[in-house]
């Protein structure tokens, strides 16, 4: 077929001249475009003539003749100087020539087996499919303009479709001749930028940087205190790695849409709301990732229904998805989905690997946040169970208190409550830290409150609480002081607690006896009982172990002597002033450090 070979050589020369003209005169597009369209028609005619000539050629007997015919056809196809793609009736790529691979920036054979309409701009896909169907049914060629996007490159092209009958194929094919009209093609033999060693090194460094940023972001203290880990991580990924980022978290056994980050240029309108309201339980890819607990990547989205549907059709279609990546969050706590549009480079297997690690870190952060907040709520509940929100009004007295939690969940408590014929109070704590100690303190506080409604002596109440504590077998003992107020007299019962301090109106400070054995050690309680008279203007002060055991930079304890000095300077002051003065002095002494809980309770006769 010498004539065809000469025609192909001539066409190659004219296409080369057009490239040079496009480069030399970029401002004069119209003449170049007209000439390019004329060459496009010529290419389509030559391709049709080649196929017709092969059909009319005399049949060569034997297998060798058929092989030579197929070999010739392949040579013609590969030598064609313009991009040509052979599609089957469904639009799937069956053959692609080197010129097409060069234009689209993909390796030879990469697009074979993929749906060609997915390269077409979303707004023109329906028209492309209609043209394809028309050419197959009528046999009449069609030519039209459209946009192609692949590997981060966007091309405005003229496409000519021609029906073909391929030797050895049972169904008819379509040849698509593609001629770019708005981009300059890379030089022949040029290496893809993505494949250069420098670019690969930069891509690897960027992935490593992402892991470092993710770890830094998720280890921030605020990520534990507030539910910010998921929004922060998705916002960072949307800024640097994808156009759309979606996080679906599993709640009550089903995936629920939690976060949607749209492209920066996408207004928060109907499309974003549709993505937010779409049910991830209807997404095949989300359920697949949750079931298999491993991620998937689609360098080219070949099924636009994978992410589910919205009112306008498949989500991936309305999002303009070109490439998609899904990884599990944690083990199976949720799914992180990243989507890039057609005009950006697609996700790769290397991206999948790094996103798998990001998803694992994000899952650990979410679990840590949930656990921390759960423990925090438990700690708050325990704190509420050992310290009253407000002190009641005690007739004939003013009351005030300060309570500072320590470095961990502690066990100090204080309370003021009504008793038979008057009012009662208590202050103490279990020896130990953590939730168990706090629960024992709460139990003792509740027992004192309840039993004080029936008993007229605080010492009887203390003994019964001790019996109950020993019976429970907690293994913890509790130091506590309790008192009943009746008029100006206060009857105290101490079980291994520090002595109360009585601040007199002249500034003198007298300590009660205190002492006794902590509750919970022996079945028979050993308490110390004392009755004090609190006159008008005098203040009874009770305090925790954490106050007097506070230490300064030299390791010296705060102690009861320093407490007496501070109280002496507060003679005649209100209870609130007294407890604040003690608090301020201890803060200055220990440079603001608080290790154990600090409780100060003051009752002033009025």
Show unreliable segments. Answer: 184-194
Mean pLDDT: 82
As a percent range, the share of strand residues is 15-25%
Strand arrangement in the largest pleated sheet: 2-1-5-4-3
| Straight-line distance between termini | 121 Å
Question: Given the C-alpha coordinates, what overall shape results?
Answer: rod-shaped
| Total count of helical runs of at least 4 residues | 17
Secondary-structure-derived class: alpha+beta
- Major sheet attributes: 5 strands, antiparallel
Model description:
With about 600 residues, this protein is α+β, with helices and mostly antiparallel strands. It is built from 17 helices and 22 strands. It has helices at about 1-25, 30-55, 60-80, 100-105, 125-140, 195-220, 220-225, 230-240, 270-275, 285-290, 315-320, 350-385, 435-450, 460-470, 545-550, 560-570, 575-590; strands spanning about 85, 95, 140-150, 155-165, 175-180, 245-250, 255-260, 295-300, 310, 315, 320-330, 335-340, 395-405, 410-420, 420-430, 480-485, 490-495, 500-505, 510, 530-535, 540-545, 600-605. The protein has a five-stranded antiparallel beta sheet with strand order 2-1-5-4-3, sandwiched between helices. A hairpin with a 2-residue loop joins strand 16 and strand 17. The termini are far apart. InterPro entries: Bact_Sigma-Reg (IPR052016), GAF (IPR003018), GAF-like_dom_sf (IPR029016), PAS (IPR000014), PAS-like_dom_sf (IPR035965), PAS_4 (IPR013656), PPM-type-like_dom_sf (IPR036457), PPM-type_phosphatase-like_dom (IPR001932). This is SpoIIE family protein phosphatase. Keywords: Hydrolase.
